[in-house]
TrEMBL record, chain A:
This is Peptide/nickel transport system ATP-binding protein. Residues 6-262 form the ABC transporter domain. SUPFAM superfamilies: P-loop containing nucleoside triphosphate hydrolases. InterPro entries: AAA+_ATPase, ABC_transporter-like_ATP-bd, Oligopep_ABC_C, P-loop_NTPase. One of its GO terms (molecular function) is ATP hydrolysis activity. Keywords: ATP-binding, Nucleotide-binding, Transport. GO terms for biological process: peptide transport. It comes from the Bacteria. It comes from Micropruina glycogenica.
From TrEMBL, chain B:
Residues 18-261 form the ABC transporter domain. It comes from the Bacteria. PROSITE patterns: ABC_TRANSPORTER_1, ABC_TRANSPORTER_2. InterPro entries: AAA+_ATPase, ABC_transporter-like_ATP-bd, ABC_transporter-like_CS, P-loop_NTPase. GO terms for molecular function: ATP binding; ATP hydrolysis activity. The lineage of its organism: Bacteria, Bacillati, Actinomycetota, Actinomycetes, Propionibacteriales. This is ABC transporter ATP-binding protein. It comes from Micropruina glycogenica. Pfam families: ABC_tran. Residues 272-291 are annotated as: Disordered.
UniProtKB/TrEMBL annotation, chain C:
The keyword Transmembrane applies. This is ABC-type dipeptide/oligopeptide/nickel transport system, permease component. InterPro entries: BP-dependent_transpt_permease, MetI-like, MetI-like_sf, OppC_N. Residues 102-300 form the ABC transmembrane type-1 domain. PROSITE patterns: ABC_TM1. Coiled coil: none annotated. The keyword Thylakoid does not apply. Pfam families: BPD_transp_1, OppC_N. It comes from Micropruina glycogenica. It is a multi-pass membrane protein. Belongs to the binding-protein-dependent transport system permease family. SUPFAM superfamilies: MetI-like.
Amino acid sequence: MTKSLMRANNLTAVYAADSGQDVPAVDNVTLELPEGQILGLAGESGCGKTTLGTALAMIANPPLYVVAGTLEIDGNEINLSTLPKNANQVHRPYRGETVSLLPQGAMNAISPTLRIRDLVVDVMRAHNGSVTKADALDRASDRLKMLEMPTRVLDSYAHQLSGGMKQRMVTVISTLLNPALLIADEPTSALDVSSQKALIEMLLAMVEAKIMRGVIFITHDLPVLSMVTDRLAIMYAGKVVETGRTEDLVNNARHPYTAALLSSVLDPTEDTRTKHVLGIPGSPPNLGNPPSGCRFHPRCKFAMDVCSTTEPKMLSEGDHDFACWWAKEHPRETIPMEVTHA
Amino acid sequence: MTEIVSAAVAADHSTPVLSAKDVTKTFKVAGGSITAVDNVSVDFHAGKVLAVVGESGSGKSTLARMLLRLMPVTSGTITYQGKDVTNLGGSELRRYWRDVQAVFQDPFASFNQFFSVGHMLKRSLRLAELDKGTEDQLIETCLGYVGLKSADAMHKYPHQLSGGQRQRVMIARALMMNPKVLLADEATSMLDASLRVSVLNVLQELRDNLHLTVLFITHDIGQACYLADEVVVMEHGLVVEHGTTDEVIFTPQHDYTKRLLADVPDLQGSLKTRSWEPGAPAHVPPPAKDS
Amino acid sequence: MTNISSNAVTAEAEGPLVPTDPTPGPKAKAKPAWMNLNFGPRLWVSLGIIVVIALLAFVGPLLYPYGPDEKVGSLYDAPSAAHWLGTENFGYDVVAVLMASTRNSLINGLLAGTLATVIGVGIGVVAGYIGGWLEELLMGITNIVLAIPSIVILILISMSLQSTDIPFFKGIVGLALVIGITSWPWTARAVRAQASSVSTREHIDVAKLSGARTPGILIRDVLPYLASYVVMAWVLQLASAILAESTLSMLGLGPSGTNSLGMQLHWALAFQSVATGAWWAFLPPTIVLTLISFGLLYLQSSLDEVFNPRLRRGKKKNLAAAAKRREEAARKLEEEMKAPAGVTEVIV
């Protein structure tokens, strides 16, 4: 197997509530990203995927606290729970140069009074005060040329750009410093399909050009992930329940939650025309008081007695990890999908 | 309960329930005007789901708001059951809204956060002018129809419900009015995939069992494929393609429809035909860090 | 005839409504909304000041042995055991006059501030929600009123009020009405902007589709969203109305023959209290006036904290306890991690 670029070990992050009780949004998660690959982080809203991205980018700010976990990245090992509580004090090179986060909705956060070029200069200067304006812009326009994007975009204001172009620009800007790892949170969710495709193609080109050596792509949209990622990690209620090569997860799901998510995907195909999907019964659990045992058991069609009492351990089948009692009893068996056909 | 269904079932199948003819909407903006909906004509047939598919800015939501009479048309006519409703007002408009209801995109913004679910539902029912016993019964029935229990839901405030539950309450609200036409304006786009499917299933059942006419507005052609009988594709305010779902999705004629379909990501990762191995040497030299 | 309930479809699809709270808040019991508000120390301090002054104004006169119209001495008698703050220019007890003045100033503020808020909110909400030509018209009127120098109007009207014979308008009420109808435009403009943004929310469309009429929508769907804003605007209007009344009265334009903080200052200046060193004549009303406006402005800014969740500070005691617990948990977790890391069990 290829060398690992990033490995997060036993990461736990909590939100401090006013009442004094902590709500664990990410619970003892271990995650690995091999060099040169794109890892997809998927799950429904509230599963902790954005929180995990924030913690990995080392910008957890109160009321979010990382209470445990280390991050091995690019040869360094960082204890995430002992980072300064105010994220602005975290050693700069780690942010932006080692790990760069593209937050959700970043494209709507561009100041309407600045040209894109001003944003480029600001971002470069924030990391290195001695960069001249010309150097910063040169680098940006080289980068745009390399990605076959029009350089005149640099002279535009945000409102003059389409949503797709804005999103591609913030992606380019957030990777100008050639970060080892880019964490992109829902970069495609607000975009039309054609803009989604353009962004995905650009991201693939960037990885191919080794602008960054790995990407964590966070979204709830499985078809997008299956287009762009090499590996997938599925999160449910703060835990990673299944991880492995994208093809393996898509074609051979080993956790019932993954299978349910996959069956809910509606492609414009003949199959979708005739199928009837049942969806997942119930609602995601309250993270302040999660169900005992396997957190998915109250909504799971395959739940057994043991599921409600004991938390399943991560099991491995080759390069495919999952935490499910049913899967343990049925080795190498794909979880049957909950779909009927007319 | 009986009249809920009878009227819809009795509706004539050949003539459209609701139709828009040459509807245009122009917005004035600084230094000119924008045509959001350009001369659109669409017919809605009883007991069918018609999906309007288009990307942002295609004018699909503007069309919906005009059909709902929440926004005046610039020109054109909207006909409901053979009657021109383009310029209705006052009590006539309220009577129109007894028959034509809607569910909107944002399940949180659709609620007045200061009212409980029960308060909101009962308020809506005033339009239907029922006595109290019938009201409670109807609420119970309609909440049951979307998989909610009235005892659990009635006293809840919107912030105590999940997104999916909120959207189902909104569907129940629309159903209570005993509508003949339901407009769902991106009603599923803010929901998680599994919830989305269950809301789509509700709409499907309503069409099959209550003979409800549904106008389903979406940017997601996959959802249209799952649910719709007919598909209208809009681009820049114009209808570029209109036909049965099978025709439009499996044998698209217009270039825009073809492109839209080609760009939809699918689970088998059609784009991921890479020419390199992960970890292999780069094809393009990376820009040096300190050039 | 089909019975709806016989077709209940989704019960199996999605299961029953899960009664547990989906909000991530731990044990978020259904507390009344006001209990979730954050009443910080700033709020208590400002409320304390206002309550003390209100007690002085409304309860004080009942307990104090002298009345404000009771001649107890001569010009500027120095403070003594009997008369804590001495006497003013007419020989009345300063404390008694101060209490009566404070009461009148507060009543004036309440009347004028409430009137300005009611007019401003009414015009702002209607203009912001309905829009179109009505908005143009109402905002035109608002801007005209705003453009007229209100102090000039105030002076002109209060001078004519002084010479009026209608008893109702002659006193403090008349002045309050004048202040009220000249100071609403700021509230109207601010409320219009807020109402305009609320009116684009989807719940307004839902209310329309539910058959609600415009007045009902304004009261039930627009106003509640502006409530916190309106309360804060009202508090500001109270403070500025009290100051406006004092300014006018001090200039000698207040209703003659009534007590108010401004009137007290007016007489103190007229009878040379500053020059003669009779501080007890001018200092007490100045201090009370300062305290009232400070209390109200401080209340306004602390209300911002109450209503705006972003400015809320967590309950410190809870947060400190949680931080300690977290440290403890982190230590435990670290120890666990030192145990064999082989959590992965290979089954194939």
